[in-house]
Amino acid sequence: MAEPAFNVLWLQSGGCGGCSMSLLCADTADFAAQLRQLGIHLLWHPSLSLASGQGALQVFQDCLEGRTPLHALCIEGAVLRGPGGTGRFHLLAGTQQPMMDWVRRLSGVARHVVAVGSCAAYGGISAGGSNPTDACGLQYEGDQCGGLLGAAWRDPQGLPVVNVAGCPTHPGWVLETLAALADGAQPYGAEQLDSLGRPRAYCDQLAHHGCARNEFYEYKASAEKPSDLGCLMEHMGCKGTQAHADCNIRLWNGEGSCARGGYACISCTEPGFEEPGHPFHQTPKVAGIPIGLPTDMHKAWFVALASLSKSATPGRVKRNATADHVVVAPMVRKTRLK
Q1: How far is CA 98 from the centre of its chain?
Q2: What DSSP element (H or E) covers 18?
């Protein structure tokens, strides 16, 4: 069988490796076979490849010198530019050269560059706090264009860095994006990215869409503690109405999401999610009104709707909202039309 033509090189920079761990949770019994089926050839991955030392460096050199075409360079983790812009906080093992220099050089020969995870996209957790390592994303620092490669950087196809944001990313987002980039019959264009460089295939949805707690949200029947079944927005810090992701439509491992597991959405696909200015599990309010309202809803309308919804909340919904199990089941009644 001929070797797949779309070559992918995956490097890990400053991060936890969680996006690689997530990738291995792709919904398949044979991960390697799925890559082959998508026409993807993984040239090298620090956790999945046998080659190390000089063997791995030879792969990089072959890409730089054009002996091996590099179709997609995937970077996981933020780029560490410190101290003082030298990048020497993170040297590629065996080279004594900063990882940021390798990323720059390989980006120059890659057909596409993909930031895997919010750290690689925007800086993420690695850039939080005082950021002593001077961590940044490939083409963003938070929500500002720039980063390692600069705002003007484009690949040979005219695309900016493709930001598959998430902390971690959903495996489906990564594989679907790579498959789309590899599909020469349907060229990937800038119109398939949103204003922050994220694939619209998953970012044209909100985490709120498909949430199992939506009945509670509609009636503003809210949870008061983590184990409660009710909506997590009003008191528990949930940002699902603002988070661009399809987490509750394309479930994790086929069955889960943060909200389904009882934890509020922290909007991990957004720049700056790592420093919300308040505890993740609390909803900041002004005069009792949550600050983090749905992105496209006027505050006055939300207040009016919430007041009406609360007054119309069925007793079943109200009681179940503050319980850890269904206390009152939906009423059974005949539905046959007469």
Answers
A1: 26
A2: helix 18-23
Omega prior to 46 cis, within 30 of 0: no
- Measured distance CA(159)–CA(115) in Å, rounded: 13
Neighbouring C-alpha atoms within 13 Å toward the C-beta of 128: 14
Phi-psi category of residue 238: left, alpha or beta, with phi > 0 → left and psi -120 to 50 → alpha: beta
If one counts every other C-beta atom within 10 angstroms of the C-beta of residue 202, the result is: 24
Please, are residues 37 and 71 in contact by the beta-carbon 8 Å criterion? Answer: no
Distance of CA 22 to the CA centre of its chain: 11
pTM over 0.90: yes
What sign does the CA torsion over 202, 206, 210, 211 have? positive
Tens digit of pLDDT per residue, the chain (338 long)? Answer: 445 589 999 999 999 999 999 998 887 778 888 898 899 999 999 999 988 899 999 999 999 999 999 999 999 999 999 999 999 999 998 899 999 999 999 999 999 999 999 999 999 999 999 999 999 999 999 999 999 999 999 999 999 999 999 999 999 999 999 999 999 778 899 999 999 999 999 999 999 999 999 999 999 899 999 899 999 999 999 999 999 999 999 998 888 999 999 999 999 999 999 999 999 999 988 877 777 777 777 777 777 877 888 888 999 999 999 999 999 999 888 777 66
Do 80 and 100 meet the contact criterion of CB atoms below 8 Å apart? yes
What distance in Å separates the CA atoms of residue 7 and residue 35, rounded to the nearest whole number? 11
Side chain identity at residue 240, one-letter code = G
Q: How far apart are CA 316 and CA 325, in angstroms?
A: 12
